[in-house]
Amino acid sequence: MRPAEETAVPVAGAGGDAGAARDRRGRPAILATGLVVAVGVLALTAMASVALGARGVSFGTVIDAFLAPDGSNDHTVIRELRVPRTLLGIGVGATLGLAGALMQSLTRNPLADPGLLGINEGAALGVTLALGLFGLSDPAVYVWFAFGGAALASAAVYALASSGRSGSSPVRLTLAGVAFGMVCTAIASAILRMDSQTFDRMRFWLTGSLAGQTADTLVRLAPFMAAGLVLGLMLARPLNTLALGDDAGKALGVAVNRTRILTGVAVTLLCGAATAAAGPLWFVGLIVPHAVRAVVGPDQRWVLPYSALAAPVLLLAADVAGRLIARPGEVQVGIVWAVIGPPIFIMLARRRRVAAL
Amino acid sequence: MATAPAKGSPQMASRLSGTSLTLAYDQRVVAADLNVSIPDESFTVIIGPNACGKSTLLRALARMLKPRTGAVHLDGSVITALPSKEVARRLGLLPQTSIVPDGITVADLVARGRYPHQRLMRQWSRADERAVSEAMRATDVTELGDRIVDELSGGQRQRVWLAMALAQETPILLLDEPTTFLDISHQIEVLDLCADLHEAGRTMVAVLHDLNQACRYATHLIVMRGGEIVAEGEPRDVVTPELVRQVFDLRCEIIQDPQTATPLIVPEARRRVTASA
After folding, report:
1. What is the ipTM of this complex?
2. Closest chain A residue to B109 measured between Cα atoms?
């Protein structure tokens, strides 16, 4: 059974009720309940991610692995591979989901996605430089290269898109992002081709994968993810106000530049840490906030936390699916997303007025 | 109703004023050395031909545009030196163009006007609730509360934006061409609403296109041309055929508005069909 289907339903169900509710006073209560449900769904997905995999392990063995670990092979797989992998999936999913939602809100561009706008590719180039050229292997060190790459990419893409007379439009921003992302990927590939050892180590990472990272990586990247999540969630209200336009936002007392810069910092932290952990992932940050907005409406105070909760559910589900469809091997989550992402993306682009946000 | 101070009186009280303003976009200077005071509790209307700098002046007064030289003062302080939220509790602006977030309801949009009164730790209070429902009642959009803003007519939508600006609860409210894109009945509806808000004690400042509407609603008129203030004062004292000719390059006759006794501009016809009385 595909967990993606099992898990997607309760979230949509709770949201559907919220959309139908016309009573303004009742709506926050329903949305808050929905958040609790989303946490529960995430917990269930996490359990599935720990229990299911290329190696068949019974549910009893999974429980035992936590309560009474006996050092057996199964227990080791669960405790040292699947649990860190699952926690990494939660961290990466939450950061990418929130980063996508923040970017879409800040740029008022429904096509904004850390992967599509080249930010994850910039971060990946930073990591490739750190690992491939400088031989740095401590995640807490090379994450700074990821931040550098992400920050540079956001600045470059934004400048590229807003140059010229017509200014920045959703389409220009996306084109600039895709082009810049390709350049970054090409340079990263070139560096890796020069060094076959690094290439072997990094080629799975480069397609986006939750596997192959240790608990240590997670521990070292978690503070950056947490900082990005807290900062991002705190920006909901100024972003809500800025959504009415720069003039209206400023008239209502939003410090426009400060809000932009802080959002940029949050996105850099989130994308840099996520890419350092799992490689450049596309579409997660694009599709999740889209779907969330369709359910909870345009209020960022709900869009941001819902995106941060729904994205890891989908990322973990895709990861588990990747483990199950190619048994005893596995398909990296980046490839699974590359298969399911574009059709959803095309559907969204066709169904909605893309320019409107 | 608040009485407008005598025109040109140097003692007139003014919380919002600009001194020696040079206003420019990039390299293009729109206005130089402007001095302007908005009389307290007035309904001030800024008027002038296209590209005369009227919207630019309003944007400067609302701190949307930083003057190249000179300064805008609010309650005696330089406006850009005050914290932005602090200004937003005293002075509101309805910009010419705003963005309606996809799928937002009327009530949610109006509620966003409460931003300057909220803190990270003190988010939604009874005062916010009261301000929002009062703003919606004043603009007659209470019934539309649960409707999606995108689906409303232009006139309704403008009332919703006004409600949002009202929920901000500022004693001074600036409006940048609030009647553009509206048909005549909705224009009058919005202006009547502004007049009500003015009578309730607010200082209103609006940029308008229509000289007759300006004459009818303004208690204080600022007439601009080519980045300069040409005339200032009560419409009946200021608006003359000479001024209209000088400012708008239009020959006209001025009669009394039969409804309000304010000046009514009748442009000269090229060919008279019937002899005038």
Report:
1. 0.87
2. A244
